[in-house]
């Protein structure tokens, strides 16, 4: 198979879909790997690192899209990239379709087979291709939130760890999955007073077992959420209903109940965000103020630490990428229900129920797409 990896074009996105190590494994299995010139530079990989393992460098994204049977990327295809997709081509990348009707319509119109990293599952009920980026974003969230809390950035002027004689910042993390757990660990490590809210009692039992004494847990009822939010210096949004638009857990009206200058870090922004006033921002302009509350809503947080993130993502995507290349999408998905769970669009049909619900579109069962 011809596997193509274009340069990411989303603003301030420095990750790349394939590392030289991933390219090497694909080449060793007899596949042709086409890397756009300079695609890896932001993550610290030179073109020569790819050619050294047998990949070919091509100059333009147009050439990559025209030649490749499968496109391996990081972020959802931008409008210009969507125009280059074609029927029968495989797209393997993050998509986040539920909050994005324009992209969904373009992918349906392209006729391509689009497998979303964020909905591929594993045997433990986890999301193995989201997890590494959730680990990164979770660990970054208190760091960027601490910066947002600084006075010059519009924040409350509160130091995460406090100092002797002054209380630490209060941090509330909504959602205790991968993002939330990593965020809570780092915030606690910075010395903050941390509470994690979740709706899953088994998850909170697990967190209490493993992290009891490091941070607290609380049930995410609406009442508990606003009560803890009122006292918080920083609120980290980390909820996920897989594939679906994020539930809105703090309304615009409720902002007036929060502390002036509090920082809201909405990691769930790529699924539409869990605060009503969240709108996606970029690394160039990451924060904005609504009613005196500072919002940080960067939808590609891991791009800020592109090297760590690229290697972590490629480690996770590689076995699936190789299965798709070796077997073709149909056989690979038929043999692996967890990869089939990643199928969001095929030949003009939407195949992911939660996206259909979010956008009011008809859905074809992924098992039926296998028969098309
Ligand atoms: N902005 C960015 O750059 C990045 C964003 N993300 C996003 O972060 C979000 C969280 O991802 P993960 O932690 O991997 O998901 P996860 O599935 O590991 O955890 C989500 C948690 O939210 C909980 N939850 C669901 N509904 C809830 C509610 N109404 N109230 C409280 N808790 C609720 C679930 O029980 C679960 O424990 C996702 O939207 C993901 O796409 C992930 C990586 C990077
Ligand atoms: C998960 C995701 O969207 C990202 O890493 O950018
Ligand atoms: Mg994202």
From TrEMBL:
<keyword id="KW-0560">Oxidoreductase</keyword>
<protein>
    <recommendedName>
        <fullName>Alanine dehydrogenase</fullName>
        <ecNumber>1.4.1.1</ecNumber>
    </recommendedName>
</protein>
<keyword id="KW-0547">Nucleotide-binding</keyword>
<feature type="active site" description="Proton donor/acceptor">
    <location>
        <position position="96"/>
    </location>
</feature>
<dbReference type="InterPro" id="IPR007886">
    <property type="entry name" value="AlaDH/PNT_N"/>
</dbReference>
<dbReference type="GO" id="GO:0000166">
    <property type="term" value="F:nucleotide binding"/>
</dbReference>
<comment type="similarity">
    <text>Belongs to the AlaDH/PNT family.</text>
</comment>
<feature type="binding site">
    <location>
        <begin position="239"/>
        <end position="240"/>
    </location>
    <ligand>
        <name>NAD(+)</name>
    </ligand>
</feature>
<dbReference type="GO" id="GO:0005886">
    <property type="term" value="C:plasma membrane"/>
</dbReference>
<feature type="active site" description="Proton donor/acceptor">
    <location>
        <position position="270"/>
    </location>
</feature>
<feature type="binding site">
    <location>
        <position position="75"/>
    </location>
    <ligand>
        <name>substrate</name>
    </ligand>
</feature>
<dbReference type="InterPro" id="IPR008141">
    <property type="entry name" value="Ala_DH"/>
</dbReference>
<dbReference type="Pfam" id="PF05222">
    <property type="entry name" value="AlaDh_PNT_N"/>
</dbReference>
<dbReference type="InterPro" id="IPR007698">
    <property type="entry name" value="AlaDH/PNT_NAD(H)-bd"/>
</dbReference>
<dbReference type="GO" id="GO:0000286">
    <property type="term" value="F:alanine dehydrogenase activity"/>
</dbReference>
<feature type="binding site">
    <location>
        <begin position="298"/>
        <end position="301"/>
    </location>
    <ligand>
        <name>NAD(+)</name>
    </ligand>
</feature>
<dbReference type="InterPro" id="IPR036291">
    <property type="entry name" value="NAD(P)-bd_dom_sf"/>
</dbReference>
<feature type="binding site">
    <location>
        <position position="15"/>
    </location>
    <ligand>
        <name>substrate</name>
    </ligand>
</feature>
<feature type="binding site">
    <location>
        <position position="203"/>
    </location>
    <ligand>
        <name>NAD(+)</name>
    </ligand>
</feature>
<feature type="domain" description="Alanine dehydrogenase/pyridine nucleotide transhydrogenase NAD(H)-binding">
    <location>
        <begin position="149"/>
        <end position="297"/>
    </location>
</feature>
<feature type="binding site">
    <location>
        <begin position="267"/>
        <end position="270"/>
    </location>
    <ligand>
        <name>NAD(+)</name>
    </ligand>
</feature>
<feature type="binding site">
    <location>
        <position position="198"/>
    </location>
    <ligand>
        <name>NAD(+)</name>
    </ligand>
</feature>
<feature type="domain" description="Alanine dehydrogenase/pyridine nucleotide transhydrogenase N-terminal">
    <location>
        <begin position="4"/>
        <end position="137"/>
    </location>
</feature>
<dbReference type="GO" id="GO:0042853">
    <property type="term" value="P:L-alanine catabolic process"/>
</dbReference>
<keyword id="KW-0520">NAD</keyword>
<dbReference type="InterPro" id="IPR008143">
    <property type="entry name" value="Ala_DH/PNT_CS2"/>
</dbReference>
<dbReference type="Pfam" id="PF01262">
    <property type="entry name" value="AlaDh_PNT_C"/>
</dbReference>
<feature type="binding site">
    <location>
        <position position="134"/>
    </location>
    <ligand>
        <name>NAD(+)</name>
    </ligand>
</feature>
């Amino acid at each position: 198979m011809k596997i193509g990896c274009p340069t990411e074009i989303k603003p301030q996105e420095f990750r790349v879909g394939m590392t030289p190590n991933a390219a090497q494994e694909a080449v060793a299995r007899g596949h042709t790997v086409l890397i756009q010139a300079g695609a890896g530079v932001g993550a610290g990989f030179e073109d020569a690192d790819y050619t050294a393992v047998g990949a070919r460098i091509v100059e333009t994204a147009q050439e990559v899209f025209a030649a490749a049977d499968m496109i391996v990327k990081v972020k959802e295809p931008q409008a210009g990239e969507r125009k280059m997709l074609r029927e029968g081509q495989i797209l393997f990348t993050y998509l986040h379709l539920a909050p994005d009707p324009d992209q969904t319509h373009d992918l349906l119109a392209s006729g391509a087979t689009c497998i979303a990293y964020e909905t591929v599952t594993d045997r433990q009920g986890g999301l193995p291709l989201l997890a590494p980026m959730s680990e990164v974003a979770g660990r970054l969230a208190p760091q960027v939130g601490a910066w947002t809390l600084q006075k010059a950035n519009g924040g409350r002027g509160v130091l995460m760890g406090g100092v002797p004689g002054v209380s630490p910042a209060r941090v509330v993390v909504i959602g205790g999955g991968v993002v939330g757990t990593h965020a809570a660990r780092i915030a606690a490590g910075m010395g903050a007073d941390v509470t994690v809210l979740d709706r899953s009692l088994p998850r909170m039992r697990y967190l209490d077992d493993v992290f009891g004494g490091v941070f607290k847990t609380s049930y995410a009822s609406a009442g508990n959420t606003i009560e803890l939010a009122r006292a918080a210096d920083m609120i980290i949004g980390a909820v996920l209903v897989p594939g679906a638009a994020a539930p809105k857990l703090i309304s615009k009206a409720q902002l007036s109940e929060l502390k002036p200058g509090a920082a809201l870090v909405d990691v769930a922004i790529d699924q539409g965000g869990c605060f009503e006033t969240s709108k996606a921002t970029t690394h160039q302009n990451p924060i904005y103020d609504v009613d005196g509350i500072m919002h940080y809503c960067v939808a590609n947080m891991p791009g800020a630490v592109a090297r760590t993130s690229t290697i972590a993502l490629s480690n996770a995507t590689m076995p699936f990428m190789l299965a798709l290349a070796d077997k073709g999408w149909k056989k690979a998905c038929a043999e692996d229900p967890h990869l089939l769970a990643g199928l969001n669009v095929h030949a003009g049909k939407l195949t992911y129920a939660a996206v259909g619900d979010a956008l009011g579109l008809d859905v074809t069962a992924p098992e039926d797409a296998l028969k098309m």
